[in-house]
Amino acid sequence: MEEKKEEPTKEKGSIGSKLNIFNIFRYREIKEDDIDDIIEELRTELLESDVSLEVTDKILEDLKSSLIGKKVNRSEDLDELVKKSLKNSITEILEKNKFERNLIDEIKKSPKPYVIMFFGVNGVGKTTTIAKVAYMLKKAGLKVIVSASDTFRAAAQEQLAIHCQKLEIPLVKGKYGGDPASVAFDAIQAAKSRGIDVVLIDTAGRMHVDKDLTEELKRIVRISKPNLKLLVIDALAGNDALEQAKYFENVVDYDGVILTKVDADAKGGVVLSLAYELKKPVIFLGTGQNYDDLIPFSVDWFIERIFS
Ligand SMILES: Nc1nc2c(ncn2[C@@H]2O[C@H](COP(=O)(O)OP(=O)(O)OP(=O)(O)O)[C@@H](O)[C@H]2O)c(=O)[nH]1
């Protein structure tokens, strides 16, 4: 027969009951009212940092439900506690949707050529970003060729040509108004015959409504079979950047995002919306107009920026 263990009694005046009373004074349970004001303040801060309304609401609701009913030390500052929890939940969201691949290693291990395709709407900094990526890859000892597959805008090819000349990188151009997929195909063929490691494909700045350009983008993907598809978006575009990201998600299933112009006065909250809503990681950040103004995205960078 099992021996019955005697429960310690908490008689009045016993050490157990004194500890209980002590704990009642030491801890308190968080009530909705206690954190309502802090949550509202954070809502304003997140929205001002360009995190979308939907994502802001979702994150704060999750935060509230994880905190309400929790017993915390009375000496703890609730304001700090809520902010700390928010930082933790943002870190978790970003860590879960991180770009885990090491690009340089991946390129070196892949059969040649490794193809990277860039797209995004006009003026986000696509051409400049391609030049920055080309510079980064060249510095890592890789041979690069660029495909000027924006045959839609003549100036785009000229702009790329200037960058490529400065960086001493070959460029394959097409005829104005010509087939951009065949330019990409030619660049890949040239890379194969010349032992080039990476092909960077520029594409025309597609506007959301432009159906022809959208079909064209799909065709470039079919023909060039990129190893990596990158969407370029502009931190200054605010919530419009998220709309662009959603639109392109339906056209091309891209691997990640390069967020440009973070050196300008924008907090870049779209990073969080992209991770939470689309599960898309930001891979690089554009931090200026020079070739070396491209840095890998880090969760710490984002936390520091949002909470500074
Ligand atoms: N401050 C800053 N400016 C940038 C950055 N990236 C690009 N730019 C500038 O943004 C402007 C537009 O850049 P482009 O590279 O021409 O943009 P694009 O998307 O190729 O434009 P289209 O060819 O019209 O589609 C240029 O003046 C760039 O110098 C960045 O990270 N920071």
From TrEMBL:
Catalytic activity: GTP + H2O = GDP + phosphate + H(+)
First-level EC class: hydrolase
Signal peptide: none
Keyword field contains Ion transport: no
Cited function: Involved in targeting and insertion of nascent membrane proteins into the cytoplasmic membrane. Acts as a receptor for the complex formed by the signal recognition particle (SRP) and the ribosome-nascent chain (RNC).
Record protein name field: Signal recognition particle receptor FtsY
Recorded topology in the membrane: Peripheral membrane protein
Broad class of where this protein is predominantly found: membrane
PROSITE patterns, per the entry: SRP54 (PS00300)
Binding residue positions for GTP: 120-127, 202-206, 260-263
Keywords of this entry: Cell membrane, Cytoplasm, GTP-binding, Hydrolase, Membrane, Nucleotide-binding, Receptor
Cellular component aspect of the GO annotation: cytoplasm; plasma membrane
Gene behind this protein: ftsY
PANTHER family on file: SIGNAL RECOGNITION PARTICLE RECEPTOR SUBUNIT ALPHA (PTHR43134)
Keyword GTP-binding: yes
EC number(s) reported in the record: 3.6.5.4
